[in-house]
Amino acid sequence: MTHQIRPLDDQDEPALLRDQFRQLLRYRALLAGGIVAGLLGGGLLALSGDDTYTATGEVQVRSATADPFSTGASADKGINIGSERQTAVSDTVGDLAAGTLLKKGDDVTARKLLTGLQVTNPPNTLTLRFSYTGASPEQARVRAEALANGYLAHRKARTQESIDNMANGYRAQLEPLEEKRDLLEERTGVGAEDDVSSARANIIVSISELSRKISELKALDTTPGYLNKKPVAPTEPAGAGLPLLLGLGAVVGLALGLLLSWVRLVFDPAVRSPRELVRSLGAPLLGTLPRERAAAGALLAIGRSGSRLAEEYRAVAFRLAYDPSFAERRRLLVTAPRGDNAAAAAAAVNLAAAFAEMGRDVLLVEADLRTPSLARDLGPAAHEVRPPSWAADEKDRSWPAGGRSNVDVPGSGAFALVAGTMADNVPRALTSASVGRIVAEADRPGAVVIVLAPPVLSYADAVALVDRVEGVVIVCDPREVHRSDLERIREIIGASGGSVLGALLHSGRGRLGRTERRTEPGRRRGGRGPGAPALEADAPEITRNPDETMGLRSFTLPGAHR
Description:
Layout: H1 13-24, H2 28-48, E1 53-61, H3 81-88, H4 91-103, H5 110-115, E2 117-120, E3 127-134, H6 137-187, H7 194-218, E4 225-229, H8 242-266, H9 274-281, E5 285-288, H10 308-321, H11 324-329, E6 331-335, H12 342-357, E7 361-366, H13 374-378, H14 389-393, E8 405-409, E9 413-418, H15 426-430, H16 433-440, E10 447-452, H17 461-469, E11 471-476, H18 483-495, E12 499-505, E13 541-543
InterPro entries: Bact_polysacc_biosynth/exp, P-loop_NTPase
Keywords: Membrane, Transmembrane, Transmembrane helix
Organism: Streptomyces mutomycini
């Protein structure tokens, strides 16, 4: 069965953003480091910087006018406030202010003086705001006032210069007219001609007009503006204080941490979200195993009351039971991508217990012939039950024809276990006819065969069994498996004739039903030595025969000889 992964559409964009944000929050160390670096930078900036003070004065700009109190007089006539702002920070104003300060004992150059000046214009006003930042409150006040007065003086001088230039121009036009008028007056008399008298009258009118203009220019009010708000010595330093700098540092540090987390996320080969795992593996997510401290000492979680881990295993078993691909064959291979196989072993045992709890005849086969451990982890090995009749006829009594055990799940049922044993030729053992007969036991109605295989990317053992089992469940930690590993697993299993039924996630080594593997003095593989400790109360019990366990149903495997 091939699982079709639905392509992303526009409606998935909010979910993608949420996933990406959650993925960034995984790198808490980078986020915390960025915030700490920002706080340290803000604190160092606040403590190392010298205190500065800013004094502010406001100048209202006005234009020259003949009568400011007349109706219709406008103070903003001909004023370009943008140009005036540029004039206020010009070198000419700086030279005038520096000259004034020099008389008061403050020797400062115009260029240095202008570096601390900032001139702004409040919207919809003819006001220029002079702000000067100095090393002391009094220095800031004096220099701000000197710059404002220097601007007013420069503007007044410029206005007066313009008036003088215009008046001189009018006088230049007036002199030839007066000379011509004097000549015409000498020619006028009793018998003067009419055209001479008319010319003289026109010249007199022109002279009067020019004289009037000169008089108006002299009468103009050349006041350039008013210092409405004189600079006052500030009482507190200017700029951001320590709390503000710490806040800004924290914000900048958080942004830096998010950037570093994003870079780390981009180059992280691990699976970043369940959505990405499903897409890489080409199979659905069966479940996510919760962390449970009580499961750290026992491999089997089914049968333990109030266990969230057991409920998750039951949910996965029900989901598999209703999967058409699994329900048709009832064969399941459980494996991990690579590395430790403890989580896969716990999943195989608990899924077998869950299917037994559902009334199925379950056979769990440990196909790990390199480091077999189920018999040891489930408890002390008892005498095996009698093997099936076909196994008694086999000439080769090696694994798996040798024997099997019954595992009692307290309060839930029992399942059969074919424990793995060390084999010299693992590929031959896995491809033997005995393995084929064991897997074929799933053909009996109501029977389920679960095979635990070594990590699929570490050994080829799982691949050798895929053509017989077909359905595969991958048990992995999303923080340790890579996207390329999942894609390779999908390709390997698909090319071997099997299909991935889904993925089962666990969150960390040693927390999801993994048994602590200890080697006590005198303890042997598959048995108990004289110094072995007693079993825990909730550990599974391996019985010689299922009929010997009171209160639990018994079952007979297909072909078993009683």
